[in-house]
């Protein structure tokens, strides 16, 4: 799905897009995680109170819940996420990484099979969390990289589902690609964004905007959040 034709597609869902994103991210992320010294996993991330190790524990737990159909009410709320992370506190790092790799491999087909598409945003969240870990490790292009071509159309769909206001974005670092996000609201013109793609991701995911440069008119950063 091309990002500049997302508006024409409206709410049409590509059920296998989350799977492609998760598998692509698996192939990019896991080699980095396997070769990173264990002490680096205690570095703090953009997620308040969570180290890189804890972020990855959360990611693996969330995906395996999907794989095993353990999706009781409130499963992805902060309290439940904290319990999943605490449960893995004494796990060896290798076990955490193994669970994450399994989840990245097996969760996509389950998400594709959900006709309501409610779990699609989990795949996008996993990709964002991979960016959190990359940033903690000092890796470049934390919220960008080769998976971005899959993340952007999934962001378009998710922003509509989360009922953010309509926004037209011009991505200066991607040959001025135009993306369409959110929903039109009567009497309110579309907001506009001009900046790089990773900054757009940071805004929608609620990540720190320090050292970024962008122009946003017609909406506030808070209105655009998809994870609250």
From TrEMBL:
A molecular function GO annotation: isomerase activity
UniProt entry keywords in alphabetical sequence: Isomerase
SUPFAM superfamilies: DinB/YfiT-like putative metalloenzymes
Residue ranges constituting the Mycothiol-dependent maleylpyruvate isomerase metal-binding domain according to the UniProt record: 22-104
Domain of life: Bacteria
InterPro entries: DinB/YfiT-like (IPR034660), Maleyloyr_isom (IPR017517), MDMPI_metal-binding (IPR024344)
Protein name: Maleylpyruvate isomerase family mycothiol-dependent enzyme
Organism of derivation: Streptomyces zaomyceticus
């Amino acid at each position: 799905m091309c990002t500049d034709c997302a508006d024409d597609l409206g709410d049409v869902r590509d059920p296998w897009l989350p799977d492609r994103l998760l598998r692509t991210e698996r192939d990019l992320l896991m080699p980095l995680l396997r070769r990173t010294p264990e002490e680096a996993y205690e570095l703090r991330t953009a997620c308040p109170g969570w180290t890189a190790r804890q972020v990855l524990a959360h990611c693996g737990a969330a995906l395996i819940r999907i794989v095993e159909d353990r999706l009781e009410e409130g499963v992805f709320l902060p309290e439940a996420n904290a319990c999943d992370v605490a449960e893995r506190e004494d796990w060896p790092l290798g076990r955490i990484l193994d669970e994450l790799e399994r989840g990245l491999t097996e969760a996509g087909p389950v998400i594709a099979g959900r006709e309501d598409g409610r779990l699609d945003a989990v795949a996008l969240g996993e990709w964002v969390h991979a960016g959190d870990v990359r940033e903690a490790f000092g890796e470049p292009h934390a919220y960008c990289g080769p998976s971005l071509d899959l993340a952007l159309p999934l962001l378009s769909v998710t922003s509509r589902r989360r009922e953010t206001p309509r926004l037209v974005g011009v991505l200066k670092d991607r040959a001025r690609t135009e993306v369409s996000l959110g929903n039109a609201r009567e009497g309110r013109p579309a907001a506009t964004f001009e900046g790089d793609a990773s900054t757009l991701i940071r805004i929608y995911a609620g990540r720190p905007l320090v050292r970024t440069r962008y122009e946003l008119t017609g909406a506030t950063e808070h209105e655009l959040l998809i994870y609250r």
